[in-house]
Every structure is written in structure tokens, then in C-alpha cells.
What does this fold into?
Amino acid sequence: MTAALLLVLAVADPCTAPIPPGQANAREAEIYVQVGDAEQARGNAGAAREAYRAALTRAPGSVEARRGLEAVCTPAADPVQAGANALADGDPRRALRALAGARGRGNDRAVDLLEGIARYQLGEDAVAVPLLESARSDPALAESASFFLGLIALRRGDGDRASRLFDQAGRAIGLEDAARQLTRMAQQEGHLVLSVATELVYDTNVALRPDGAPITIPGPDGSAGLTIMGLLRPWGTPGPYLRVEGQLSKQFTLDELDLIGGAAALGFRLLGSGGSLTAEYAYSYQAVDWRGYLADHRAFLGGSLLTGIALWGFAYAAHFETYRWSELEDLSGVRQVLELDAGLLPGGGVRITAGYAGTWDAARVQNLSYVEHGPLLELSWAQGPWMLGVRGALAWRPYLAPDPAYAGTTREDTRYFATTWVDLGLGAQWSVRGTARLLRTDSNIPDLNATEWIFIGSLAWTGAVL
It folds into this structure.
């Protein structure tokens, strides 16, 4: 039954039905080929097929007739689908080439959406916006178009507009989680953003007491902290920005470790279709036990580049540090930090990052100067309001000269770091976070071996006021 049905369908299809033999006539075959070419040029595929079949009946070996029949029987490539496939492959320029002749077929709004997405990915926001606005006029495409218009508003620093667009995009199936997370980000991308965070901290070794040290040396303690930050971006992102921050930390028992500090930074951020670059100068000052403790001038340069599902990053900072306490003056100097990393974004909110970091601390005296380096690995997952992560690092720290305080031994430390955190967004502006950190130091000088656990619970509010 099935075989018979397939045979009937094959016979009914002029592209697959056998061509019956006829009386050979090369001249008539040539005329039918000309007719087929003319009908194909007019877009009349049915008449062209019959003409080419007639030509093959009279001249079965005609290359022109066979080529013509194959051409009209080959389904025309759908430029819209080709454009969508190119975007899925991460090739917006190929998508634009595929969409170049796609309009005028009754699906112009879909073409506008795909071209707008391609223009957005290429960083051509001024061209993308009218295309996406056109697509948003179609109710079937409104949520998807709103999503990408929201991304453009977010990139420009217009948090209010981005938030409204993501709210609309969140009604579409498949966009809810991404829209919810981006709505939260939009609250942090205005021209003037304020953030207030409070935290409770428990530190098992607040004074970094060595293993086996007498209990007279301070050990565990808790603290309560408050951080207030303001970020001004007059022209949104990309562009210049000014950040001001204040910090207060009050120990529960060790009052001599109470900390108050402030910082200000001036920077500029550039954004491209798949990357970013940030340059910044910052100054910070800290006081411990209400006495000036540390002044730090910092120059920073960092950037990232997205290629497919790989995210490449680098960060460099130079700290010009001055310790204010006379007993710590020899620690003053220049501390430079460099980190290179590569991330993998396999989907599902997962990000895997591996890298290598190095530090060169040139203190005033050689025996307090060191070079530190080692690998790091981070795994994070974000879905809806939740974000979970874990980060581990290993660092070797050889000092540059013998230390007279330890019988002329040149100190060599191995340091282990581990951090894990859970973050829960409570709406667009509030979030709570739990963090646990471990720092372990193993030294060739046993008296310096130490272990520290830190547990932090924090509550933060962040919102764009302009």
C-alpha cells in the first residue's frame, strides 16, 4: 500500500516522474529548451518544467535541458531561514548578505527583526533601532524585538527604557529568565546609579594568626559593614564615568581593627560588537582604628572579547601604595597585578573560566618584595534570580631576598584560595548573597603557616536614579 502510494506521488511529480521516450528531434528539443528558459525567467516554474521535459523526450542527452529541469526542480533557498541560520552560527555579516534580497515576499517585519539583530551584534545601534522598532509593530515579533531594543538601551546606559522593554520581552516563552536577569541589570545601567550594601562577617582568623600561635594573639571575630557607592555615567555606556565609594566596618570585639575608608575613580569604557575595554584611575584611603593606614593610587586597564562561545579577558592594575603607620612603612611601594583568562559559555547559564594571574610587589625593602603567580579556575551558573559560583586559585610566592627576621632565610609561600557564593535577586533592585572563603598559607618558615575562613552574608540595593 505504501509503496503504491509513493509510486503514484512520484508519477504525479514532474520533477521525479520518468520521462517517456519520444521521436528524436534535436531541433525541436532546442526550441523547447528556449521556451523553458523563457518561462523560468518569468518565474513560471511549472511551464518551464514541462518544456524541459518535452526537450528531454526529444533529446535525452541534452545537457541544457537536464540542467534547466534540475534548476527549476531545486527548491529555492529561503533567505530568511538562511539569515536566521547565520545568526545562530554567530555570523551577523553572513546573515546580512543572506537577507539582502529577502524583502517584498510578505515577511518584511521578520526580515527587519533579523537584520536588526545582526546590526546590534555588529555594534551598529543607530541602524538597528529603526529596524527593530519596525519589527515590534508586528504583535508576533514584538517581544523578541523588545528584547534586543532593551539590550541596546542597556548598552547606552538608559536603564529605565531597558527595564520597560525587558518587561515586555519577558512575556514571550523562552525569554522570561533572560529578560528577568537583564531587567535587574538595567537597574544598574542608568546615568546615575546608587548602591547600598550591608554585610555581616565572621572571620576565623582576623589577624592571620599562625598555626599553633598562643591564644593571646587575636583569632576569630565578627564584624558588621556598610558600603555606599555612586556611579555617574553622563552619556551612558560607552563613555566616561565617575565612581565614588565609602566603606565602614565595625568589629564586634577587636576595636583596634575597625576600618573606615573611601575611594574615587575616573574611567572610560569602550564597547564593541563582541568586546569591551575599560581604563581607570582610582584613589583610595583607609583608616584602621581611626588612624590613617593606607593610601593607594591605582591605574587599571581591562578588557574582554567574545568569539563564539569563548570569552577572552585580561586585567592589569598598578597600585602605588603608601602605608601610613611607621611600623609598616617598609611595605610601601608599587604592586602590579596581571590576570589573563579564557571563559567558555556552553549555554544554560553556565560559565567556565580558567586563567593565570601574577603579582609583582616591589616594596621599599627587598626582603618584603615578592613575585606571586599561579592558575585559577571558576565555575558559575545563573538562572532566573539565582546565581551560584565557585572559584579556586593556587599561587606560589617567592620573596626576593633573605629576611633577617627569620635567620636570613628567603621566604617562600604557597597560597591556596577557594571561594563559593550564592546570590538571589529579590526583584529588580534587591539581592542577598552568601559567601564562604578559605585562605591557606604554607611557608618554608613554619611559624608563618596559617588558615583563615571567612563567612559573609550581605543584603544590597542597587537602583538607577537618573
